[in-house]
Write a structure and sequence with these properties.
heterodimer; A: mainly alpha; three-stranded antiparallel β-sheet; 70% helix; elongated; B: 260 residues; alpha/beta; Rossmann fold; four-stranded antiparallel β-sheet; 10 strands; globular; binds magnesium ion
């Protein structure tokens, strides 16, 4: 009995014009996303190699490691990031290593090519989020109400067919038919990667597989919601309208509204505010410093000890400076820390609110799995900091100078003979280590769970509604 | 003749004090009683809103009775719906079926959920021919079918289920005169196969040709119920048309009285 219902459902869907059109568009977009992602990746790859080469070239001819003015490292492009771009186009991809200032990333893709910021890129995550959900609604909105309108529901239930079997068959049949169709489109997209000479590592394939799984879970949520709503309504036009409203709320409104709400609820001081506070503090400390300076008491007042007095004064001033710097550093740290904390709690609140919408879970989970979530920037900067430590070690070994303290270093060149130029290739290579698969899965699992829960919820809701459905 | 056991085994459809009051207070059926035996064709006449479809919905457990019960083969529909529904086939008023499926595919699906899994293409062809659908449309999609052709498919589906009772809700509504005539012959053959047939209709002329028992339903009450033999030569048409036109209790009750 169940098999018969499943069978019928699959054939009913697959033979409909609606399916042909919707699937055609969907498949085309999915394949396009793979193609665009692949070409985008190749361009980024070339740019990356070129940037690295330029960085080394500007060091050519330098004869002393101390003379290196600039050394940059770059976030390498990843093929998965081209499929699920996340924040990868928004964050800076370049970090300047020389010097001891706070490390910052610059030159984001959108910064360099603002046109992309306006239109965003057509990536797989976008297709999943917008197109897949519409696809599910379009094919599921009349699951029950449509059968009622055709009179087939009455006719079917006039038999010894349990309602639970009927609705289960509907679910399995429609999900199987549609997800197989989607998987075919995705498989074609995947096959496109090697033909465009993009090779994924085994781990990356695993990640892609999980991203697709998340996509299917998300699809299931909307399909489940469609069957649920269609078993609450008696006219498929009503069911479609309701689902459309729901779609607008979940895909368009809730994620954005949550960010706005969280922004209102948790106040994060802006960088400008913090800078202003720092400046105020600095000038205040400067006044104190000047006042303290006048409090200098030389140990003897004799003219003969002028050198000694100068020395004492210098020491006194140094200690005051150190004290002042320590104070500034402490306050700066505290300000940055509280800003970071506020940011984190704002973000958490925004995410938690936004998770009311499965679209959020899709974005977060796929971003995490592709390594392009909001953590990417922090992770990149951490890696860059770690690299800079290695760079300092390298420089110390080469020059004997520890550059961690900062400041200017001058070295007189003595000896007449021309020194040999340095070999920039000796510089340590920056190897970006993305989060491990296990770590990514661990942080994606919450959102995968949420999506699974939504599936379950809508399924249970649909079954319950259908058992009481007025089939007349 | 030992009548009691025979009645037990051949009573297919029974309404016992069957009452339905809708949530909004409309009393659609008011303690109606009737029974249809194996090999009997029972026609329920009644105007729009009389309660015919409500009665059928109670047999199919699409509605819960407010009082009384509808029984199929002695099984109360609202108590054991799945068991009861094994024994009944149903032809609804206006069935669309699956537009993307061919006639044969539609038949195949409904036969299977009716519990008949071993039909072959030949069986489907035979039954479609029997209801008057020529072979060249058997593999056409239902969405190209006319209303009457779909109705014939619906009847074919009911025949395939081969249940001991058949419920038909205004089955002749979409049929042209020729098809209507063929349909009457079809019902006749089903009856001779021993099926208990319950048919609701407005169409007294067609009913007259074939019914074993007539009942007239008016605002939820059976105001007349007679075997056809009792009405032989009597003016059922006039009676019913009077009833339909006047829709007036006293006159119908009086008319019913004449034949009682
Ligand atoms: N869901 C409902 N809720 C409330 N009242 C209803 C409902 N369905 C039917 N009725 C009422 O019950 C009565 C009987 O309706 P029913 O559909 O059984 O009539 P019918 O004899 O089949 O009429 P027709 O010949 O028009 O098909 C009508 O008065 C109708 O308004
Ligand atoms: Mg009716």
């Amino acid at each position: 009995m169940l098999r018969t219902v499943i069978d019928k459902e699959v054939r009913d869907i697959v033979t409909s014009t609606k399916f042909a059109v919707a699937f055609g568009v969907c498949a085309l977009l999915i394949i396009a996303a793979f193609y665009i992602g692949a070409t985008h990746f190749k361009v980024s790859q070339e740019q990356y190699e070129a940037s690295k080469a330029v960085n080394l070239r500007q060091m050519e001819g330098v004869t002393d490691w101390m003379q290196i003015q600039q050394h940059r490292i770059f976030l390498p492009p990843k093929p998965l990031a081209a499929l699920v771009s996340g924040v990868s186009n928004d964050i800076g991809r370049t970090v300047e290593i020389v010097g001891h200032r706070e490390i910052t990333a610059r030159d984001s893709k959108f910064n360099e090519e603002p046109i992309f910021a306006v239109f965003r890129l057509l990536d797989l995550e976008f297709i999943f989020q917008v197109v897949l959900s519409l696809f599910a609604i379009l094919l599921g909105y009349d699951a029950i109400s449509g059968e009622k309108e055709k009179g087939t529901l009455r006719l079917s239930l006039a038999n010894a067919l349990p309602r639970s079997t009927y609705i289960l068959g509907k679910f399995i049949g429609s999900f199987a038919a549609l997800s197989v169709a989607l998987l075919v489109a995705i498989a074609i997209g995947c096959l496109l990667l090697p033909t465009l000479s993009i090779s994924l590592t085994g781990e990356e394939w695993g990640r892609l597989g999980l991203i697709i799984l998340v996509g299917l879970l998300y699809f299931g949520v909307f399909l489940g919601a469609s069957v649920f709503v269609s078993s609450l309504t008696h006219r498929s036009s009503n069911s479609f309208l309701l689902l459309l409203v729901m779609w607008i709320m979940t895909v368009m409104v809730i994620p954005r509204a949550s960010v706005l709400l969280a922004g209102r609820a948790v106040d994060v001081p802006s960088v400008d505010e913090i800078d202003a506070e720092k400046a105020t503090l600095a000038s205040q400390l400067w006044e104190e410093f000047r006042a303290d300076l006048s409090g200098f008491k030389p140990s003897s007042n004799s003219q003969a000890d002028i050198e000694k007095t100068m020395d004492e004064f210098n020491k006194y001033m140094d200690s005051l400076t150190t004290l002042r710097n320590e104070k500034i550093a402490a306050v700066t740290d505290r300000l940055n820390e509280s800003r970071r904390n506020a940011q984190v709690s704002q973000q958490r609140l925004a995410f938690d609110l936004a998770r009311l919408s499965p679209a959020t879970s899709l974005t977060l989970a796929t971003g995490t799995l592709a390594g392009t979530s909001l953590d990417l920037k922090g992770h990149f900067l951490e890696e860059a900091l770690a690299y800079r430590e290695g760079y300092y070690d390298f420089m110390e070994e080469k020059t004997g100078v520890n550059m961690r303290g900062g400041g200017m270093f001058m070295r007189m060149s003595h000896g007449e003979e021309e020194p040999d130029p340095i070999n920039p290739r000796e510089l340590p290579d920056f190897r970006y280590q993305p989060a491990t698969l296990a770590a990514s899965v661990e942080s994606a699992v919450v959102d995968m769970g949420i999506l699974a829960l939504f599936n379950l919820l809508f399924f249970a809701g649909a079954v319950m509604a259908f058992l009481k459905y007025d089939a007349r | 003749m030992n009548e009691q056991p025979t009645r037990e085994t051949t009573l297919r459809l029974e309404a016992v004090n069957l009452t339905k009051r809708y949530e909004d207070g409309v009393l659609a059926l008011d303690h109606i009683n009737f029974a249809v035996q194996s090999g009997e064709l029972f026609v329920m006449l009644g105007g729009n809103g009389a309660g015919k479809t409500t009665a059928i919905n109670l047999f199919l457990n699409f509605l819960e009775p407010t009082e009384g019960e509808a029984r199929i083969n002695g099984i109360a529909s609202h108590r054991e719906p799945l068991k009861a529904k094994q024994h009944v086939a149903f032809v609804s008023e206006n069935v669309m079926l699956y537009g993307n499926f061919t006639a044969i595919q539609n038949l195949d699906f409904f036969a299977r959920i009716g519990g008949k899994t071993d039909f072959r293409r030949n069986d489907y062809r035979d039954v479609l021919l029997r209801v008057g659908l020529p072979e060249d449309v058997h593999d056409k999609r239902l969405k190209s079918f006319s209303k009457g052709m779909r109705q014939k498919c619906g009847i074919a589906i009911a025949i395939l289920k081969d249940a001991s009772a058949i419920l038909l809700d205004e089955p002749t509504a979409g049929l042209d005169p020729k098809a209507g005539h063929e349909f009457v012959r079809l019902l006749d053959s089903l009856r001779s196969e021993g099926k208990a047939v319950f048919m609701s209709t407005h169409d007294i002329f067609r009913a007259r040709e074939i019914a074993d028992t007539f009942a007239i339903l008016d605002r939820g009450r059976i105001i007349m119920q007679e075997p056809a033999s009792n009405l032989a030569g009597k003016d059922l048409e006039t009676l019913y048309i009077q009833y339909m036109a006047g829709h007036n209790n006293s006159s119908v009750a009086a008319a019913g009285g004449i034949h009682a």
